[in-house]
Structure formats: structure tokens, C-alpha cells
Specification:
The protein is an alpha+beta fold. It contains 5 helices and 7 strands. The chain has a single domain, classed as L-fuculose-1-phosphate Aldolase (3-Layer(aba) Sandwich), CATH 3.40.225.
Length: 193
């Protein structure tokens, strides 16, 4: 089980990178699984590109955040753990800084639900106020907002999505980016005379 989960984190890290949802050393991906003494989270390491991670780069932490393998987990490990605590049905998380959705995060505009696209539960994708990346405040606010949502915007920061698997979470951040792109292009086209 552990090896499969770690492999899925590596694969979905490459997936979000290849689709332009993260660049450089930004973003993080995790998956949760049951260990012998409780939940274990396999998470991407800090300050490493998601483009070319190997299985040995993935860091395992327990539900308290204690590192169980070598390496240093993403600085957002606290946010991932807080979300897993609040959402027992979630086993995958993807956090990205995709261009269109993050553009919305830095603006006063909201990503509107498109008819026929069920990923956004209310009229607009929920956002939370800005908190310093990696902070306890961000972890608390994100986990609280995600109690009733599958994806949210982190103001002046990016997007975070959850799923029953890490693949589902990665697909959802990609979907949010597609909705943001569609909304942006529509706005630009509607501004032409």
C-alpha cells in the first residue's frame, strides 16, 4: 500500500507540473493511507520541483506531523494535516499556483460556477483571506473552508483541492484552472467592440 501511495504522489506531482499548474519549486501534493499505528501522509518535499520527483524524495509524516523518513516535508504540511483531520473521507490533496486561478486569487474577482460543471458547489468558488504560506492560521482557515467544499481559492496565493484519491485532487485543481481560464477568456472577448 505505502509504495503504491508514494508512487501516486510522484505521478500526480508530475501531472500538475506538466499541465502548467505549478512551476519551479512551487506547489505540493499529498496522499493519506492507513499505517500500523495510525494515518500516514506521503507528501512532496520542500523546495523541490514537482517535475522530476522520485519515490525516495517523498516524505512520510504521521498525523502529528512527525517525519518518519528522511527529507523535509513541504512547508504546507500543516495545512494538509489539518484538512485530513477535518475530512476523514479525503485521501488526496493538491495545492497549485496555476496562472488563471491564481490570477483570480490576486484579484477582487471570483471564479463563477459554470452550468454543467459540478466541481463548484455554490455560485462562486469559495475563497479564504490571505494568510502567510505555511502558517497555522492558513492551515486552520483552509481546513475550515474545505469542510463544505472540495476546492477553494487561497487569496493572494493559489488553489487547493481535495479528493478521495490524489488523482482526483489533481484532476480537480486542473478543472478549477480550466474554469478560471474559460471565465477570463470570456471576459476578454466580451470586452471587444
Amino acid at each position: 500500500m505505502e509504495k503504491e501511495i508514494v508512487k501516486s504522489v510522484v505521478e500526480m506531482s508530475a501531472y500538475v507540473f506538466e499541465r502548467g499548474l505549478v512551476s519551479g519549486k512551487a506547489g505540493n501534493v499529498s496522499a493519506r493511507f492507513k499505517g500500523e499505528s495510525g494515518d500516514i501522509v506521503a507528501i512532496t518535499p520542500t523546495l523541490k520541483s514537482l517535475a522530476d520527483l522520485r519515490e525516495e524524495d517523498i516524505v512520510l509524516v504521521n498525523e502529528k506531523g512527525e517525519v518518519l523518513t528522511k527529507g523535509k516535508p513541504s512547508s504546507e504540511v500543516g495545512m494538509h494535516l489539518a484538512i485530513y483531520r477535518e475530512k476523514p473521507d479525503v485521501y488526496g490533496i493538491a495545492h497549485t499556483h496555476s496562472p488563471y486561478a491564481t490570477g483570480f486569487a490576486f484579484s477582487d474577482k471570483k471564479i463563477k460556477r459554470l452550468e454543467g460543471f459540478g466541481a463548484i458547489k455554490s455560485e462562486y468558488l469559495k475563497d479564504i483571506e490571505y494568510f502567510k504560506p505555511g502558517s497555522k492560521e492558513l492551515a486552520e482557515a483552509a481546513s475550515e473552508a474545505l469542510k463544505s467544499e472540495d476546492a477553494i481559492i487561497l487569496k493572494n496565493h493559489g488553489v487547493i483541492a481535495t479528493g478521495e484519491t490524489v488523482k482526483e485532487a489533481a484532476a480537480l485543481v486542473e478543472f478549477v484552472e480550466e474554469i478560471a481560464k474559460t471565465q477570463f477568456v470570456t471576459h476578454v472577448l466580451n470586452s471587444f467592440d
